[in-house]
Amino acid sequence: MQNSIGNVALSNVWGRLNNAMIVRGKGSFVFDDQGNRFLDFTSGIGVTSTGHCHPRVVKAVQSQANQLLFGQMNCMLPEMSARYAKALVAKTPETIETFFFANSGAEAVEGAVKLARMATGRPNIIAMEGGFHGRTAMTMALTSSKSVYRAGYQPLPSGVFFTPFPSGFYYQEFQHHWDSKQTVSFCLQQLKHLFKTQSSPEETAAIIIEPVLGEGGFVPAPSGFLQELRKICDSSGILLIVDEIQSGFGRTGKMWAHEHSGIVPDVLTMAKGIASGLPMSAIGASQELMSKWPVGSHGGTYGGGSAVAMAAAMATLEVIEEEGLLENAAKMGGYLKQQLEALVERLPQKVDVRGKGLMVGVEWVRDGQPESQMAKNLQSKCLEDGLMLLICGPGGNVIRWLPPLNVTQDEIDAGLRVFEAALSQFGGNPSA
Ligand SMILES: Cc1ncc(COP(=O)(O)O)c(C=O)c1O
User: Which residue in 217, 206, 245, 265 sits closest to 102, CA to CA?
Assistant: First the structure.
């Protein structure tokens, strides 16, 4: 798609779904400089969870901008940051009582790893195969959702070990036809084997996990697996870092995706939907754990200091609560999944529709192979017809649906009509 400016002075390193020049956003829609409208079911990869330019968030930003833009955390205590931290405690599990604020998801994960190493005095971190935690050196080292995120940058920081994530569909379809119980049991065995062969529990500071794999294919971790991880961590003094950067702030129909499993994290990393679009992230932990982080041993110029981001985050919490966005995410997510299941039922491919709340993935497989071309064709056709959808998963064959949490049923229906038209164009055949 052409835009009116043509070549722009931006790095080539950004892949981009939509090259239209976007000038305005409202709710579930963005508008380009040619007057075209797009239904944005990417929410900027899960960031604009209250929709584009929610009036309450905009107002909070405007009025905060008139008061204080920035108060550097080592120099002063911005009232808005203290107020937001207090509000966030009320929204996090009982183990999470204090926060360190930063600017991006990767920064939050980096900080969480530093905290875990410092607090336990242990060197190693165990991450999940298929996980994604960011693009900085340490977070790349923890990431294994796709080789492209690491290629060309290795060697990466050491002390990171990977254990299999119990991806139900993967083990059933591509591996052993296992059910969820067999998959969980295999993955736990592998973790125990890793303890024996590569990083003993005494050397392991933390296990990090996304309760729903994001980049790795929108795969929810089975509750039984998370519960066993919790027990293993408790019995061996390992910290459980739950990365809710994509799945948090109501995305899955609960405030935190780990709540679906009844576990609590030792360290919680948050970003994306935290402030409806302003760059911000947080690390949460107990007071006891945070007190093991010596003063000055971590920090950053901007983290926690943007009073405007804090105001946006506060307004976001209020919108989530007052507009019933958790309930809406659960209800609309259930509806979306049901409709997608009905749409793909008749297709010749194996199609797995999965997810929680408004974090829904549709994986395409034919003859035991990931069908990335089908996913790409559908994505392009949807964009042509004004619907923005992203793709994820190591095989590039999972279409991800991330509408804002206040999406309406009419908007979901509109998106589904575009998707259905794309499906009928390809007739289940990626090369049609
Ligand atoms: C689960 C998870 N962790 C960490 C990150 C990194 O966040 P950021 O891109 O803000 O650095 C992401 C980003 O997609 C993510 O999904």
Answer: 245
